[in-house]
Design a protein that fits this description.
2 helices, disordered N terminus, 50% strand, four-stranded antiparallel beta sheet
Length: 154
C-alpha cells in the first residue's frame, strides 16, 4: 500500500510546474523495432516570471520499451533560458522551486528544472537535473538570466 501511495505522489508531482511545448527532435540511433532513440527539444515559460523562457534538450529512449512508455531515459539534459520579453514577477519566488518537470520512466525517474534567484547579482539561475526515488544522477546543467534594473517590472 505504501508503494502505491508513493507512486501516486510521484505522478501528482509530475504535474507540478510549467507545461512544455515540443519544439523538435532528432534521431540519434536507429531501432529496428519501435521508435528510434531521440533527442527532444522542449520550451516552457517560467510560470512565475513573465518574459523568461527556457529550452531543454533531453534524451528519449526508443525501441519497443520506449514506444510502450516502459523505458527509462538517460539523465542527459541541457538547458538554455533567455529573456524573451519584459520581465515581470507574477508570483512569489521560492528558492529551489520546481518550474518544470517531466517523467522519464514509468514511475520513478524525472528530469526537472528548478529556479534560484541570486539577489546580489540580480540574476535568475535555472538548474536541470534528473532524480530517481532511490538514486539520482549528478549530471546537471545550468542557465542564468540577468535582470537589468530597467527590465524588472515587479
Amino acid at each position: 500500500m505504501k508503494r502505491i501511495a508513493t507512486a501516486l505522489a510521484l505522478m501528482v508531482a509530475t504535474a507540478i510546474g510549467a507545461q512544455a511545448e515540443q519544439i523538435g527532435e532528432v534521431d540519434t540511433a536507429f531501432r529496428l523495432l519501435g521508435a528510434n532513440h531521440k533527442i527532444v527539444v522542449e520550451a516552457f515559460d517560467d510560470p512565475d516570471i513573465r518574459g523568461v523562457s527556457c529550452f531543454v534538450s533531453r534524451a528519449k529512449t526508443g525501441g519497443i520499451s520506449g514506444t510502450l512508455g516502459l523505458a527509462e531515459d538517460t539523465s542527459d539534459a541541457s538547458i538554455a533560458c533567455r529573456q524573451v520579453g519584459p520581465i515581470e514577477f507574477v508570483g512569489e519566488l521560492e528558492e529551489g522551486e520546481e518550474v518544470f518537470g517531466r517523467r522519464t520512466s514509468v514511475l520513478f525517474k524525472r528530469v526537472q528544472v528548478v529556479r534560484f534567484f541570486d539577489e546580489s547579482r540580480n540574476t535568475l539561475i535555472y538548474l536541470t537535473y534528473s532524480d530517481r526515488l532511490i538514486d539520482g544522477s549528478p549530471k546537471n546543467a545550468i542557465s542564468a538570466v540577468a535582470i537589468r534594473p530597467w527590465d524588472a517590472g515587479s
